[in-house]
Design goal:
The complex is a heterodimer of chains A (102) and B (302). With 102 residues, chain A is mostly helical. Chain A has four helices and no strands. Chain A has a single domain (6-101), classed as Orthogonal Bundle (Non-ribosomal Peptide Synthetase Peptidyl Carrier Protein, Chain A), CATH 1.10.1200.10. Chain A has helices at residues 6-23, 45-58, 65-74, 80-93. In chain B, helix 7 packs antiparallel against helix 8 (239-251). Chain B starts with a strand and ends with a helix. At the A-B interface, helix 2 and helix 3 of A face helix 6 of B.
Chain lengths: 102, 302
């Protein structure tokens, strides 16, 4: 289990904002934690998957995609802020993500 | 002279022409119109009604295939006019016909005829049941196969795009069940591809055999550049192996991921998606390697 520091939070937020600004050709200044990924940015689940791969490599995470998928079914993500929260949980708990629901 | 680091990939059919990559390329519209005119004269006069911002026949599977082929052949012609010659050409799924045109194996008109005969041969063979194809991302092949076996579904894995990205084909009601169960099992993305034929599966083997009989009179030549089989990643050399490939491509599973990897092992560092979509460009983000995957416009305008 990784410890989430303020630096980690800042890194994750920066990566997520930059990623969506580039992928969705949006002005990064217009993106905030309440921005809707689908309605405001026209994002999709493939982008979510791509972000997971980016974080898996950056933080050397040991997590199966289906664990994230099962968690996402119970905890759907709609906004940038929610997505950042989920990414932090993935980094912190990796394959034990589902244990959060027990 | 072929560029030994370059490969052209011809994608499967698509219905989406919004922001298509050819729109800003000089000469693209003229070349497309010329081939569209030939296509309308050869297989279907209604094709001449097509317009990028108007009538695109999205509900008509056969016309969609013709139009994707015409678009991809236009891309091939434009790339040749810019003196780009790849070492390898590959056709993803039904992109095989455009790949064969690009490699000089079949004429433009023969490619259209192959599409027509393949579609009708398969449709004629499937008299009972409704069929379809879907895409599943986030599970591995063992997970998917377990679901198929556990629920006794008449569905097959028919392509692997990336380590956790698969295409499935089969009976529509079972396909729908598989997509639903896959979501519950942790798939991050599932999508019905909205087609009525279960390409690359055993369900169309009988139709493929009929197709083999119907294409006996069509001419296949030895190619100008090398074509890679998506079925077993062999390099196709003879005209007969090309003919055989278009037949087995209909009913045998493909593996795009292995094909992509094979070309990377052969030192290909530049791939160009020669069609309307950018799906293979997006897919490349999930396949590790030291290479670049371009859409047609970004390659030519770089």
């Amino acid at each position: 289990m990784a410890t989430i520091t303020e630096r980690t939070k800042s890194e994750v937020k920066e990566i997520v904002y930059s990623f969506f600004a580039e992928e969705c050709e949006a002005d990064i200044e217009q993106i905030n934690d309440n921005t809707s990924i689908i309605n405001d940015l026209d994002g999709d689940s493939l982008m979510f998957l791509e972000l997971i791969e980016i974080f898996k490599k950056k933080y050397n995470l040991d997590i199966e995609l289906k664990v994230i998928g099962k968690y996402a079914v119970k905890h759907p993500v709609a906004t940038i802020g929610q997505l950042i929260e989920m990414q932090l949980l993935i980094i912190e708990h990796e394959n034990r993500l589902m244990e959060l629901d027990k | 002279m072929a560029d030994t680091s370059l490969s052209f990939i011809f994608p499967a059919f698509t219905r989406d022409y919004i922001d298509h990559p050819g729109q800003n390329l000089p000469g693209f519209d003229e070349q497309f119109s010329q081939l569209l005119h030939t296509g309308a004269e050869t297989v279907d006069s209604v094709l001449s009604d097509f317009h990028f911002n108007g009538q695109t026949f999205p509900e008509d599977e056969l016309r969609t295939q013709y139009l994707t082929y015409i678009y991809s052949c236009t891309a091939s012609v434009i790339l040749r006019k810019h003196n780009f010659y790849p070492l390898y050409t590959a056709g993803y799924s039904m992109g095989i016909y455009a790949a064969m045109f690009d490699a000089g194996v079949v004429s433009f008109e023969t490619g259209l005829e192959l599409i027509r005969l393949a579609y009708h041969s398969l449709l004629d063979s499937l008299k009972i049941g409704r069929f379809g194809m879907g895409i599943l991302i986030g599970l591995n092949s063992e997970d998917i196969q377990q679901l198929i076996n556990h629920f006794g579904l008449r569905v097959e894995i028919t392509n692997q795009n990336a380590p956790h990205s698969f295409v499935v084909s089969g009976f529509r009601e079972d396909l729908t069940k598989l997509l639903e169960h896959s979501k519950e099992e942790g798939a991050l993305h599932v999508r019905d591809l909205g087609v009525s034929l279960p390409y690359h599966s055993r369900f169309v083997k009988e139709g493929a055999m009929e197709f083999a009989r119907r294409i006996g009179h069509l001419k296949f030549s030895s190619q100008g550049n090398q074509i890679i089989s998506l079925i077993d990643q062999t390099i196709l050399v003879t005209a007969e192996s090309m003919r055989n490939e278009v037949i087995r491509n209909l009913f045998q599973p493909l593996n795009w991921f292995s094909t992509n990897r094979m070309m990377l092992d052969k030192k290909i560092t530049t791939f160009v998606e020669c069609g309307t979509s950018k799906d293979l460009v997006k897919n490349a983000k999930f396949v590790d390697g030291n290479y670049r995957f371009f859409a047609l416009d970004s390659f030519l305008l770089q």
